[in-house]
């Protein structure tokens, strides 16, 4: 069973010598106006924790908060979006629960399977590892701007395409190559999740800020202060826990803390395996980017260069 003290993405429960369950739960308020697309994104966000631990989704339960004065057709479209994502993940939606709430929220409790000795945690990164990220940053800034109609259609559509995308192929890549540690990048932002990985692994993560992939349009939106409250809290938290060696401007520092929805996988892989991992990702249509490395622990768990 996973040690809860590490803050892993999901819990792992051994059923036998050959089978363990991976279980997680997540739900979010709308990040996009289209209810079907919101359902797709929220479900992909929920499945991500299973993939981050090397699991394969089996079943899902819908979790829904919904206002009583909003059309049930909107609720239906949200559920249809979630079902579409579950179908792509090869998982069965077997039920769920709905309550009344002033603001809609949707997500899933997901159960997956994994070999008991083959699950991947955030607590086993090793000095000498290379850090690979599989999706660009910026969804929090872009969706915040979209609420004020302050983002172009092209920029928003690209962010939506990334949020809809499952992390299944990235997970398959890392499982086939063999990696040391993994987490996904969601509400704590890249720096928050990287810090948690480094702390749980008792190492220091060194991030090359200028190598981090960022979605088109994000810099301009961030300079216009299209920053969500969660991102600002992330930045305040990380300022106290990070050695900022970088000459980055404040805009980039904030983007590194941007609260993501359905972000990519952040993988710690041995240096001799990193090219095989990147090649496997390319074969499966995933873009992986090297963004840093792992070194022995020093005063800080996270350094930005």
Series of secondary-structure elements, N-terminal to C-terminal: EEHEHEEEHHHEHEHHEHEHEE
Tell me what the CATH architecture of the largest domain is.
Alpha-Beta Complex
Chain oligomer state: single chain
Under CATH at level 1, the class of the largest domain stands as Alpha Beta
Strand order of the largest sheet: 7-10-6-11-8-12-9
Question: Averaging pLDDT over every residue, what do you get?
Answer: 95
Residue share in helices?
A: 25-40%
Main pleated-sheet profile: 7 strands, mixed
How many strands in all? 12
Q: What overall form do the CA principal axes indicate? A: globular
Q: Under CATH, the topology of the largest domain is which?
A: Phosphoribosyl-aminoimidazole Synthetase, Chain A, domain 2
For the CA atoms, what is the radius of gyration?
19 Å
Q: How many structural units, i.e. domains?
A: 2
| Unreliable parts | none
Terminal CA distance reads: 36 Å
* Total of helices: 10
Percentage of residues in strands: 15-25%
The H-level CATH homologous superfamily of the largest domain, spelled out, is PurM-like C-terminal domain
Structural class: alpha+beta
Task: Explain what the structure shows.
The protein has helices spanning 35-52, 72-89, 139-147, 153-164, 168-177, 189-201, 218-223, 229-239, 250-255, 274-283, and strands at 11-14, 20-28, 56-66, 92-100, 105-114, 130-133, 181-184, 203-207, 242-244, 265-269, 289-296, 302-304. The strands form 2 sheets. The chain has a 7-stranded mixed β-sheet with strand order 7-10-6-11-8-12-9, sandwiched between helices. The model has no long low-confidence stretch (mean pLDDT 95). Strand 1 (11-14) and strand 2 form a beta hairpin. With 305 residues, the chain is of the alpha+beta class. The chain has 2 domains: 4-114, PurM-like, N-terminal domain (60s Ribosomal Protein L30, Chain: A); 130-304, Phosphoribosyl-aminoimidazole Synthetase, Chain A, domain 2, CATH 3.90.650. The protein contains 10 helices and 12 strands.
């Amino acid at each position: 069973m996973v040690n809860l003290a590490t803050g892993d993405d999901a819990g792992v429960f051994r059923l036998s010598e050959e089978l363990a369950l991976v279980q997680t739960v997540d739900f979010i308020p709308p990040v996009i106006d289209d209810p079907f697309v919101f359902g797709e994104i929220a479900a992909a966000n929920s499945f991500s924790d299973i993939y981050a631990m090397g699991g394969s989704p089996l079943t899902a339960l819908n979790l829904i908060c919904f206002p009583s004065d909003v059309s049930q057709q909107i609720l239906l479209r949200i559920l249809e979006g979630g079902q579409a994502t579950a179908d792509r993940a090869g998982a069965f939606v077997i039920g769920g629960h709905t309550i009344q709430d002033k603001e809609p929220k949707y997500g899933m409790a997901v159960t997956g399977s994994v070999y008991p000795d083959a699950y991947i945690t955030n607590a086993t990164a090793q000095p000498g590892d290379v850090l690979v990220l599989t999706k660009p940053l910026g969804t929090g800034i872009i969706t915040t701007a979209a609420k004020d109609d302050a983002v172009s259609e092209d920029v928003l559509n690209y962010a939506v395409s990334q949020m809809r995308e499952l992390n299944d192929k990235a997970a398959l890549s890392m499982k086939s190559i063999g990696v040391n540690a993994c987490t996904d990048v969601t509400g704590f932002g890249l720096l928050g999740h990287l810090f948690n990985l480094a702390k749980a692994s008792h190492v220091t993560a060194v991030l090359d800020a200028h190598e981090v992939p960022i979605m088109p349009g994000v810099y301009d939106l961030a300079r216009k202060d299209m920053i969500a409250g969660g991102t600002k809290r992330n930045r305040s938290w990380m300022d106290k826990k990070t050695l900022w060696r970088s000459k980055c401007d404040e805009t980039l520092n904030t983007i590194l803390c941007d609260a993501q929805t359905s972000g990519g996988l952040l993988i710690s892989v041995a240096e001799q395996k990193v090219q095989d991992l990147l090649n496997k990702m390319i074969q499966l249509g995933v873009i992986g980017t090297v963004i840093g490395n792992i070194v022995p622990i020093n005063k800080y768990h996270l350094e930005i260069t």
